[in-house]
Amino acid sequence: MGKVTSYCASRKESETKMTISSNGWYDNARHVPSPYFDVRPSVDDISLLVVHNISLPPGQFGGPYIEQFFTGKLDPAEHPFFKVIHQMGVSAHCLIRRDGEVVQFVSFLNRAWHAGQSSFAGRERCNDYSIGIELEGSDFVAYTEQQYQSLTQLTNTLMSTFPQITRQRITGHQYIAPLRKTDPGLVFDWQKFKKNLKA
């Protein structure tokens, strides 16, 4: 694939180059490899971006728990909710924290386990052909400016690297699994996010 360069949409950082390496890792992220991934049916089929949210414990921000959850290191004794989820074995490609930090768990070339039972435009098994980005947050708390900036930067880079991901093929978990999921919720400002995406 080589190294692909994109320019962020933030005016403040408009000269900063964002790249994805040939092994599928985002250079502008902290890398925390997860064991929860497998091989995609085809890397040439990467054509969808799914936005999620997550907070652990629910409604609480900060702390190590999301990273522990995605890497199989969550201690069920830390919180009652963790007893329910600690063995689920799920992941996302990236997490964007409240301060805008990007943490990557799975190479974009591999299949992260983020979407579950899902369908987009009549096609099921979204994990096969999608990239999953988690925002640290909840359905009821506004996302931060730093998160929107980081998400825009990352998305523009992904669109350059994987041209089948277009603005029409960027969606929320709530839309690909509407009977199960509600994230990123009504507080996510799609217009704000998409206005700075490249054409």
From TrEMBL:
EC number(s)?
Answer: 3.5.1.28
Q: Which cofactor does it need?
A: Zn(2+)
- Give me the reactions it catalyses: Hydrolyzes the link between N-acetylmuramoyl residues and L-amino acid residues in certain cell-wall glycopeptides
Q: What do the Gene Ontology cellular component annotations say? A: cytoplasm
In Pfam terms, one family for this protein is Amidase_2
Q: Which domain of life is it from?
A: Bacteria
Q: Where in the cell is it found?
A: Cytoplasm
Gene3D superfamilies recorded for this chain?
A: Peptidoglycan recognition protein-like
GO BP term, example: peptidoglycan catabolic process
Q: Give, as one word, the top-level EC class.
A: hydrolase
Keywords from UniProt, A to Z, are: Cell wall biogenesis/degradation, Cytoplasm, Hydrolase, Metal-binding, Zinc
| Similarity annotation | Belongs to the N-acetylmuramoyl-L-alanine amidase 2 family.
Protein known as:
1,6-anhydro-N-acetylmuramyl-L-alanine amidase AmpD
Source species: Vibrio splendidus 12E03
The beginning of the lineage is: Bacteria, Pseudomonadati, Pseudomonadota, Gammaproteobacteria, Vibrionales
